[in-house]
Amino acid sequence: MRILINGINYAPELTGVGKYTGEMAESLAAAGHDVRVVTAPPYYPAWRISPGYRAWAYTRECIQGVEVFRCPLWVMEQPSGLQRLLHLFSFAVSSAFVMLSQIFWKPDVVIAVEPPLLCSPMVLLVSWLSGARSWLHIQDFEVDAAFELDSLPRGGLVQYLAESFEHSLLRRFDCVSSISPQMIERAVLKGVSPERTWLFPNWVDTERIYPCDSSSRHWRAALGLAEDDTVVLYSGNMGGKQGLTLLLDAASALEDEPSIRFVLCGAGTARARLEKLAVERQLKNVQFLPLQPIERLNELLNLADVHALIQRDAPADLVMPSKLGGMLASGRAVLATARPGTAISNVLKEAKCGEPVPPEDVDAFVRSLRRLAANPQRRARLGANGRAYALAHFTRQQILAGFEAQLTGLSQPVTAVPALSRNS
Description:
By secondary structure, the chain is an alpha/beta fold. 42% of the residues lie in helices and 16% in strands. The chain contains 16 helices and 14 strands. The protein has an eight-stranded mixed β-sheet, sandwiched between helices. It has a six-stranded parallel β-sheet with strand order 11-10-9-12-13-14, sandwiched between helices. The longest helix has 21 residues, at 81-101. It is globular and about 65 Å long.
């Protein structure tokens, strides 16, 4: 098939949506499909254009058999809610011309990756003009998140128009997929017919990420950590959705227990604020690391005795953190802020791989962390359970093979129930 993908994030971004869109496109190209991607220069999670790329230039390159068209993008390191909207709008406008030119290529399927939803009208237009099928893959319900996280004012005309725009677009796609059962249910509530939905979770490369106790020893030595220290690791984007101040609050509460150490690794709009706060509080049990290259990710994840999966309460089921797969595959216990019934809590319950605590509840987090720190045998058991669950549900080969099969059969009616049972 000829497959056209439109999304703001793409390889070589190491985390978030860009990582998964890149691996998805490369998997389709490796399977023999002709794949084109219309995207922006890499900028995430640091929120600045990566070296070797230009913000205001149209460029074209080939990555792992995928033809990639880069379009201009306005980006700044600490965007407000309105600035983030302008950032997305700049890409929607600059990519529109490139997307229209693909009509003459005559794609069979056109895929929009949300965010940004602003690109969806052009994806629908291109699919209609070229006679292609349309697919929307939702990594993040950005409209809901913008209002629930107070990036945009709730209520009134703005929210009404934004939600009406979203609902109208979602109903027009031939297939709408998302990364958790709860997000699929939310899409149905927004007007998508259940038979046109498909569960397409994020995956983990279980051959690249695996338990290896010896691989993290140099990390402990470099960070001045003792072998018997309990390391609480957060690795990933440091943004507003996470509420990572909770980790610093927990570190403050545990200052008198020096064997429990916190390591925060990654980049994002909240990192500078978190580092400043740690300095102001004079936290000796907290260390920060920069975002690590993919070849060192397994060593980093194996540094953890406990993985911290932190989310604020408001966006609990608007996103499904992609970092969870790596945590499970590394064979380490997980301590997550998640309420019962949310996607994260359900995975922890099914996998028996960790403990969920109420979001933004520092005392509950500290109590659970103390229990895990005091019981290495239980941590090992939870980690082994998580690894087994990742192998059963989140392997890259399994999920991407199912996606290719669904994509190939898109010309036939999409059946939601078999797809959900196959991937859930």
